[in-house]
Structures are given as C-alpha cells and as structure tokens.
Design brief:
Structural class of chain B: alpha+beta
Radius of gyration of chain B: 23 Å
Radius of gyration of chain A: 21 Å
Largest sheet of chain A: none
Number of strands of chain B: 8
Strand content of chain A: under 5%
Distance between the termini of chain B: 80 Å
Order of helices and strands of chain A: HHHHHHH
Oligomer: heterodimer
Largest sheet of chain B: 4 strands, antiparallel
C-alpha cells in the first residue's frame, strides 16, 4: 500500500524525476519490491541489454539505450514537433485551399519526426548513467534485495571515497 | 521511452490523435463558407400524363435544369450530390416529395451546369391527385465533405402546374 501512495505522489513530481535518478547519493525513488512501471533499476549491477529493455530477446539485438535525459528530450521533441507540423500543414492547406497538400505535408512531417525521435542518436546520450565497478557490484550481488539496495548506496559511497 | 518500439508506438499514437484533431478543425472551417447558389428549372413538355390500372397517376416530363453551385465547394468538399424533387400536397399527405432527377458533381468546375433531360425517375403519385395540381420543383443538395459534417440545403421553385386532363 505504501508503494501505491509513493507511486501516486511520484506522478506529480514526474518532471523532477529524471534529475533525481541521476544523483548518486540518494536511494532510488522506489524500494525494489514495488513493481511500479517507472522504477529504474537500482544502480548496483549494470543490467543486461535484455533486462534493461524488458522485451523479448529478439529486440535486444538493436541497442536502444537512450539515457533518462535523452528519453525526456526525445518525448518532448516528438510532441512539440508533431504539433508544429500539424499547425503548419493546416495553415498551408487552408491558404492554398488544398486538403491533399495538408495531408502530404503532415505525412512527411510524421516520417521525419519518427526518424529523429525513434532512433537513439548521440544527442540523446549526453548524460549517461554512472555504474559501479564490477568488483564492488559482485560482492553485493548475492545478498537479499533490501540489503542490496542499502549496500548499493553505501557501496557507491565507498567507491567515491577511494 | 526506453526502447525504439516504445518510441515508435508513441509517435504513431500521438500523430493519429493530432490527425483527428486536425480533421475536426478542417470540418469546422466549413462553417465559415457562406454559399450563394442559384438554380432555374423550366418544364419544356409534359410527355404523357396517365393513370395506372391500380389508380396511381404518372407523369413524364422534359425539363431544362440550369444551376450554379460553385460557391458550395470548399477545400473540404469531396463532391456535391444534387437532386430535383417535385413537391405537392394531397388530401392524404400534407407533403409529397418525388425525386425526378439526381446527379453527382465531383469538382467545382462541373458545378455550373445546364442539362436538358426527361425525368430520370418516375413521377408516380399515391393515388390520382395530380390533375390540375400546382407543385414546386425543389433543387436539394448535399455537400459531402472529405472529413466531418455534411451540409444540406435546397432552393424551392414554386409555380409549376399540371393540366386538368390526362394525355
């Protein structure tokens, strides 16, 4: 139940969520046992490509790794550009009095936006996540989940003190 | 937005939603069009005017239909369906409408037309009330849009008359 209310509260703070995740000194927003769709993996062991994507292995052949900031940027770009293309298409069609031209401009715009936002260009990977060194992660990977989350945050502190 | 499939789905769904909104706006823009159509029908000849064995009257006539419906066309018009109906009153029905001719106008260029034709559909009454009848010829049209609301209107042309006797 506690997980549920945390999840609901988090929806209101969604915009700051991406910034929160990147800070290394606080624990993730959700405890690991809460299966909220938005929860990030605890930053201990770098998950395999398949685990990260969460889809069947066939898709893992195409790396789709955008970082969190990149995903936010991609989504915002998509929304703003789609609305802009729609407005431009409508105004042009209205002026020329051609329904066909409006649809052609819109279709071209959608294809362009799909090419830009779906593929993970380097633009979307400018803030990559920092993972632990493998040796420290291995030490803690055999412990139960709750202790692992606590150990992960303390583990990070240990590595920075080095 | 963590995988390319997820992002593709988001683009597809959002683009279709925006397309729906755009089509709604296109249909709304049709309300700003104030058309000024004109029409005139001349009945050249009553070919025959008989009564069927079962008691219903039938008329066949040749008409000249002239119309200019160009102002009905907007950027959102696919075609205009136009039909000519004879309207009259009988003791049994307060309004009888019998469609005599119809046509589809595909483009604005075709919307100004002149046509010389006999009635395409049979003018048969319910009963035998047509002798000496005054009737209106009304040109109806339906502006069929590419997307959204269809507009329909008419021009009523009164003053047509059928003779007292069968021919």
């Amino acid at each position: 139940m506690e997980c549920f209310w945390r999840y609901i509260r988090s929806l209101g703070a969604f915009s700051s969520y991406y910034k929160v995740v990147l800070r290394e000194d606080i624990s993730p927003l959700f405890p690991r046992h809460c299966t909220a769709a938005l929860s990030p993996p605890p930053l201990a062991v770098r998950p395999t490509e398949t685990e990260q994507i969460g889809l069947c292995p066939i898709f893992s052949r195409f790396p789709s790794g955008m970082d969190w900031q990149g995903q936010k940027l991609s989504e915002q770009l998509m929304q703003i550009m789609l609305v802009a293309v729609a407005v431009a298409a409508y105004v042009t069609g209205f002026m020329i009095e051609s329904f066909r031209i409006m649809m052609l401009i819109y279709a071209g715009g959608v294809v362009l936006i799909a090419l830009i936002t779906v593929q993970n260009w380097p633009l979307f990977n400018r803030h990559p996540l920092k993972w632990l060194e493998p040796s420290v992660a291995d030490e803690y990977s055999k412990e139960p989940p709750q202790q692992q989350a606590a150990a992960a945050s303390s583990g990070k502190k240990k590595s920075t003190k080095k | 937005m963590h995988s390319w499939g997820y992002r593709l789905n988001a683009v597809a769904t959002f683009s279709l939603t925006v397309l729906g909104v755009m089509c709604g706006m296109v249909s709304f823009s049709d309300n700003f069009n104030h058309p000024t159509p004109s029409a005139d029908v001349r009945v050249l000849n009553i070919n025959w005017f008989q009564r069927h064995p079962d008691g219903n009257d039938e008329v066949s006539m040749t008409m000249n239909i002239t119309a200019n419906l160009q102002s009905l066309f907007t950027w959102n018009t696919k075609q205009v369906f136009v039909f000519l109906a004879a309207e009259y009153e009988t003791p049994m029905n307060s309004l009888n409408q019998v469609s005599l001719w119809d046509g589809i106008i595909p483009t604005k260029e075709h919307a100004r037309f002149w046509i010389h034709t006999a009635n395409k559909y049979r003018f048969i009454d319910q009963g035998s009330n047509l002798r000496g009848k005054d009737f209106n010829l009304t040109l109806h049209w339906h502006v069929m849009p590419k997307t959204g609301k269809m507009f329909a209107d008419k021009i009523v042309m009164p003053g047509y008359h059928l003779l007292e006797d069968y021919r």
